[in-house]
Amino acid sequence: MRNLFKIFVAIFCLCLALNAKEIIIGSDAEYPPFDYIDENGKIAGFDIDLIDEISKVAGFEYKFIKIGFDALIPALKAGKIDMIAASMSATNERKKSVDFSDPYFFTKNLYLKLANNDKIVSKEQLNNLKIGVMLGTVQESVAHSIKGARVIPTEGIAGSIMNLKAKKVDVVIVDSSVGFGYLNKNRDIVNFLEESDGSDGFSFAFNKGKNSEFLNKFNAALKEIKDNGTYDKLLVKYDLK
What we know:
alpha/beta; 2 domains; five-stranded mixed beta sheet; 37% helix; 25% strand
């Protein structure tokens, strides 16, 4: 009984601490318009503005730090950050390690190629080809599932697009919310396939089983800003609607 009481007190104190202290949020800042480094050298984007609005409703202070996407969950598990805001897809595999907030954006996988490449028209033709992806993403997992594919990951999706334009990869698999932006700016690249990414949408991540009280408050705030129109205004601001 005494041990159970100690566990209860520890969890209670952790919840109080998370609600009282400054929340350290990790982001790779490599996924515009959701998260990126602006002209002033600061982390900016849709995710950041969304967190700011949620913090006003839920009542917490926060600070962003830049961490490579593939290192975000390890940093969360190690206690270096309290939360992840990095356009992270809520997959079943990730749910084994983290608790996700309610989803805030839904997307698909886009398959991109050079416009003058007439040889690739379907997914079945990707076997044994070079495929560019962003490191640690759902799209990287998809690429590895393609028979014989040589997967070439980069820290940011911009690097994969550069590799495609330089013909270092044959195809890039990218999240549609980001991919359409690159298509609009690069007329020499086209999309030849669009499919579900198999996730439950973009969500914010918290260390598993440790922040339930704060997560409930966070989700309630997210719902409130969706209901009051603030969320839609952010979608328009970042050309996501």
